[in-house]
User: Fold these one by one.
Assistant:
Number 1:
Amino acid sequence: MCECYQPLRSLQDPNNQNFEDLLATATRTHASYLTRTQTAPLLNARRIALFALNIPTLVESDLASDLPLALHIPLPSHHLAVGISSRTGLVEIEDDGSQDRGARAKLAMTAVNERKSRLLDDVGRLMTAVSFFYIFAQMLTASRSSRRIWKNKCAN
């Protein structure tokens, strides 16, 4: 039996488990297995691992989360999480950044769920867009602060 289905065997006392607990454990285990399968190409792709010291990792979550297992992809100021939802069975892409980046993640998530083979391309595009947005925001901040410094020098 596959190692990913071992949580089913680890139920404390099968005689005291109700159907809801068993179903929740089974769907979370299945979603974890699907996440490992679907994200394997992302773990092997060079364009996804942007930072040699901070590579993407699979992270297990607590029982309250819909994503029992998620691939966390580090970006300059935050990270993306890619996983299979235990409730819907669909690929979910979460971005812990601002609202506009969340909208980009939702668009990528919709495209990926239409065709699962697009996961690598769409996550790569999303990473590029988020990184450029972060760089652009940093440039705007630096530009505004340099203008203030210049105005203060000219005023004196």
Number 2:
Amino acid sequence: MNSVDVAACLTKAYQARLDRLDADAPGTLALCLRVVDRYVKFLHQPASTSSAVKNPAVYPQVGPWGLPLASNSANRNSAMYPLERFYNTHESGVSISNESVKLGAGGFGSSRVGAEEALLRWAQRSNPPIRISPEVLTALADDAPYSEVTLDHLPNLAVYVAATIAGTALCHYDAYFQVENGVALPIAGPEFNADCGSTRFFGSLDGDPAAFEDASSYGPDLTDSLSISRWAGGRFGSSCTITLRYAPDFDVEPLNARCEGPSCPALAQVARKWAEAVQAGPQKALNQSRNALSQRQRDAFDALQKSEKGDYSGDPANYKPENISYGVPLALPVLIDDALYRAKLGHAGLGWRIYADWIVTFEKVEDGQAEHAATFRIAMTKGGLLNAKVEVIQWVEVPPK
């Protein structure tokens, strides 16, 4: 076969792939729209009428990476992941596979085998034994020796994924394969977008085998995301992604306070008021706080800000609530009982991870100095659903020239 024949063959294969993806798109879009419709109905029905949870979730009392939540309430944690509550109910049509198994012990400092060896041991113990092709072993990341290998099985099919999650960003390294005649051969995985920080699982939707990716956020953007790829015609079809955006909901009582004295309850309510105001619009909140001051008070606050570095409120480019972290907080002048305070507000976080809750600190301003008065953590969770967006993901491999 000459170069012209090779090019023609590749072009034909490429066009066939495009045609197949185009054929997938309408059904895939309808799939996610159907799930959105069910989710909206689920949110609108009273909790008492919701069907029983199929896979009861034990919501931990710690957040991601072991950080404590702002509350010791399971309801608080559940409120940050409403989509998870939905797809664990009968109304969703989603059934999560219970065939996921962990291959070997995980964790730093434990007795570990490499990812390849863990998969090979599983294959040898299978009945009958399975031979893992070299291509599958190559696809499985073995550069994170302390990451546990998880094997998930697509229900009623000889389709598997061997996966590791590595690094502080929790990135996926997946090897999808299908067992044919006792040999595990590589296959293309579902077309998902979130390579890091998401949860992937096999299951079914309305009885059809499918792969799922939950990339819901614990951060201040207050969004959920679910991608679905059905198995049909011997392959994973195009994925659809549902993105859900919520209004903020604030806990009535601030939590994890550092405050002493009889004025703390009143200060807590002021902290919540300004957290809500900044969430609604940082620039408007800043203008509102400054307009309440006398000229003398404005001058005193501005002099304090100029004497210190890190005046976050001076950079208009960052006037978006989701961008304000407590490491570089927004500073507002606040009057409490006619006394001038500096309020510092920002989202709680650890390193590069930014969480939804607001940290609010009050410093009393006197004689050009700022003295700490109180700090509160204002819990912010996902409230009412604002909107939903559905997209079809179609990754296409472009043939070489």
Number 3:
Amino acid sequence: MCPLKDLMIKGNLSKTARQVAAASAGPGSVGSGESSTLRMNRTWQKWSVICLILVAYTVFRVAAIPADPMYSGGFCHDCSYLSIVGKNLHEGKGFVLDSLWLVFLQPASLPMPYHNANPLFPMLIAGLMASGLDAVRAGFLISALSSTALVLALEDSAGIRKQIGRAHA
């Protein structure tokens, strides 16, 4: 046995001496370039599987958009409201609503100004309508893609937290 390994077993080596002993132990030992390559390959394989699952999920969500989405269980009065505002944006009318079933708002007249505080969704609908989709299908497509975007954002957030944790360690 190597004298450096004997000292390692007894625990009488400094950190630098342990690194030298590990490097001199040969290609099959822990800490060699070969094991880090295998570790990288396993990480790559895990991420490949996760990415394939995410792509399959996204394709399924897009393919599952109903043929007539206006009459599906996923289309409600809020969806209609946002679709109308997105359609009006696409047509150049601005953030206006042509119809309103919510009687409690009692608008003085219609069309009325858009009163929702979240304009991004109607803006995305208007943007997708430029590709030839109708407002309802554009809304369903945004929903399908945003769930995948959320998973990617959460993963990125976790990756950033890991990087910050390593910097403080």
Number 4:
Amino acid sequence: MARETAGDTVAAASAYAAVFRSHPEVPEAAIRHAAFSAGSREAADVRSLLNRALENAPDLKPLAVECLLKNGIGQAETGRTEKALTIFSLAAEYDPQNEWLRLKRAQTLAIIGNTGQARSDFESLLEGPYGRDAGFGLQRLLQDSDTPPLEYWRSLDANHPGNEHVRFFLGQAGGSESRALFESGSYAEAARTLRESCPDPCVNPERAVLRYLAELSETGGEAPALQVRQLIQANKTLAAQTLSWILSAMEHLKAAGNTDRAVTLAQTAVNAMPEAEAGWAAGSRNNFVLWAVSPCSSALWGFLWNPP
């Protein structure tokens, strides 16, 4: 058992084989021998030996699953993924509801490229204790897939309403998609995506800032401007990113002729981050300085009305 505990499945298999040869009538010896020999013999032979042992000691079924799982993990860690999959599948025959075992099987399926079955197995685990691990497994599958991540997580959210793991990954996908939408000037769609992926109360300050900036860029209004100011005051580390987003939006709005909303964004920036005004005025592109409480309003108007 020391070799088994140390993760040396090859040495464990040899040791248990010796014990089994000396005591073939002992069910535990037969089970350990069968489970740890699964890396070098056919699954049918392992199953037959396990079944004979379990007929005499059915209470040892958890031991059989535990030994198979340990051997499967050892096989996977040494790169023998096909053999690991066989062992995990065999173990699942004896404990089909074991979610840790199903997770290891899904991860192995993903490694060998059986993405369809891996996705199905991961999805079946989302409601259980390994839902977050399953979500990360699905996220990795999406990286090599043509399926749009936001579309995929939306469909899962419909099938798993309120699932915290699905909502987490939906938020991530929505955040990436909404940033691209915002930076392209699609403010209404960016705001819609963020309201979906980070609904009130949005606990992610960065996504919340981007959402209110999108709403402010799309329709103006005091409410989103106030939300931006409050979020920045509570999360000072977001100031630089927020300034970058505001500059990007102002350029888009200016090009579209929406000068009033561009000015509103500038006012919001000054009100939320007055200490950043001097640095921004001195070093920003287009020689831009802020208006509203700024003494240099003429520079803002030069930025708004003259081509960059």
